[in-house]
Amino acid sequence: MAEKERKYIDCRDYPNNKTCTVAISADSDEELLEAAVQHVVSVHGYSDTPEFREELRKSFKKGSPPAGMTRAA
Ligand SMILES: [Zn+2]
Question: How confident is the model at residue 14 (pLDDT cuts 50, 70, 90)?
Answer without folding.
Answer: confident
